[in-house]
Design goal:
Elements (H helix, E strand, L loop, with lengths): L2 H7 L2 H7 L6 E7 L5 E7 H6 L3 E4 L25 E6 L5 E2 L7 E9 L10 H14 L2 E15 L27 H6 L1 H14 L3 E6 L5 E6 L4 H20 L3 E4 L15 E7 L16 H21 L21 E3 L6 E3 L9 E3 L8 H18 L22 H9 L2 H7 L1 H19 L4 H7 L4
Parallel strand pairs: 1-6, 12-13
Antiparallel strand pairs: 1-2, 3-4, 4-6, 5-6, 7-9, 7-10, 7-11, 8-9, 11-14, 13-14
């Protein structure tokens, strides 16, 4: 591959980024189960000559702490077999925070027989999207990303604190939609916009959320794989923008006690691939059976999928009454207390919002799991419960409240496993149970404070 091939084959934003410059390095990356970018950085000249590279499949057996769910490899012994990683050049984008001219390229994982690795997150999402395509449907999603900008935290034993704003005061809580609050983070937000523009990403808007230093970025609706790629990239660029200004960006579901958690709300619609029309709306603009079946699928199968959309022990701290996170699977129109919300829209834009997924989930897996629940509802023609009216926080919770319980429900969900892939479900459960067991070995400050001398 010559330099001319680079210019001809790259997406327009990447070509614009490199115009008049010499590409130095390419970061060849892939998402692991937590959503961490794994891979290699190679000189541009070498990348131009290589058609693929290798990483061991054990990257998908790693826990968030760096330990190994070794039983995830059910072959004899623990053999780290190399995968074949092939670049998807449509994902080539700038890494504008680096000191030289660098591109990132997302790769897809295959085994030596050219079969997709079933537990690679991007392959899991592609599998679900293909099931929709097989029915003549095109799923469309629009993710919303919530996150906190916080002061640097170098000691895990200390509480996470809001970052210092431009005014010299710590970020204030309960200032949702405040433009003054947004202005407090102006320099960080400016870099987020600049990095996003260099990477060719379109931000639909940035708002201040209810937590101290909590922001939300909305993305334009589109293809699920493309949007998951963007969320994967966005997490990295937001962290890099924050580090430039002596603060951290965190996507923990609940980083600060008594503050709202951070969600990745997922808006869903489904188009007929032949006509391009929204299958949730009929010829006269009314709500269709498909619309209700999709909701019914979310209500029926999301308890089984919570372990994927809320993947850590911290994730379940977010599901607290009156803290802007749902506690059940009620559905309602323009009702933010329900787990499933129907936003105000035109018939063409009719969509279903899943408010359960946390921002700590892997974007490929969170979107895949949510789409899988809706798909099962469509295929099984599941009718939802009656629309909820009023404050859903007054009702009882009907979702798992701890990771161990969520994994138990996930393990028994054969129908969901068939959609996501049985091998993915097996590996995911083993890795997550390993993490959960690691957590249970840790004694918390609360236990030491209240139990040490009192029980």
């Amino acid at each position: 591959m010559t330099d001319a091939d680079w210019q001809d084959g790259l997406p327009a934003p990447a070509r614009a980024y490199l115009e008049g410059r010499r590409l130095d390095e390419v970061e060849c990356i892939i998402s692991d189960l937590p959503g961490i970018a794994r891979g290699k950085a190679v000189p541009a000249s070498k990348f131009a000559r290589q058609k693929h590279f290798h990483l061991p499949d054990s990257i998908f057996y790693q826990t968030i702490t760096g330990d190994w769910g070794e039983a995830a490899d059910e072959r004899e012994g623990f053999i780290e077999r190399d995968m074949i990683l092939r670049p998807d050049m449509s994902t080539a984008t700038a890494a504008p925070w680096t000191g030289d001219w660098t591109l990132q390229v997302i790769h897809d994982a295959y085994d030596r027989k050219e079969r997709p690795i079933p537990y690679a997150p991007r392959n899991v999402l592609r599998r679900v999207v293909q099931l929709y395509h097989d029915q003549g449907w095109q799923p469309v999603v629009a993710p919303e990303m919530e996150f906190y900008l916080v002061a640097r935290n170098l000691d895990p034993a200390k509480d996470i604190m809001p970052m210092m704003g431009r005014s010299g005061r710590p970020a204030a809580a309960r200032q949702a939609y405040s433009m003054t609050a947004v202005d407090e983070f102006g320099p960080v937000i400016d870099d987020i916009y600049d990095f996003a523009e260099a990477q060719g990403f379109e931000i639909d808007g940035i708002t201040q959320e209810g937590g101290a230093g909590q922001l939300e970025i909305n993305l334009q609706h589109g293809d699920p794989i493309k949007l998951a790629d963007e969320v994967f990239y966005f997490k990295r660029l937001i962290r890099e923008a924050a580090l430039r200004h002596d603060c951290f960006a965190t996507f923990m579901a609940k980083p600060i006690a008594d503050e709202p958690g951070s969600a990745m709300h997922i808006h869903h619609s489904v188009l007929d691939m032949e006509t391009g029309l929204n299958v949730f709306s009929g010829p006269q603009g009314g709500e269709t059976d498909a619309f209700f079946h999709f909701i019914g699928g979310l209500q029926t199968y999301m308890p089984s999928a919570i372990a994927v959309m809320a993947p850590y022990v911290n994730s379940y701290r977010r599901y607290v009454k009156d803290h802007a996170a749902p506690i059940n699977l009620e559905w309602g129109r323009d009702n933010r207390t329900t787990g499933i919300r129907i936003p105000l829209s035109s018939p063409d834009g009719r969509r279903v919002e899943n408010r359960l997924a946390g921002m700590d989930c892997n974007p490929y897996l969170g979107i895949a799991a949510s789409l899988a629940c809706g798909y099962l509802g469509l295929m099984e023609e599941i009718r939802p419960q009656k629309q909820f009216r009023g404050d859903a926080y007054e009702g009882e919770g009907d979702i798992p409240r701890v990771l161990g319980q969520a994994l138990d429900v996930f393990d028994g969900a054969e129908a969901l496993h068939k959609v996501l892939g049985p091998e993915f479900a097996r590996v995911y459960s083993i890795v997550k149970r390993t993490e959960y067991e690691e957590f249970l070995q840790v004694i918390s400050p609360w236990e030491r404070e209240h139990l040490l001398l009192n029980v």
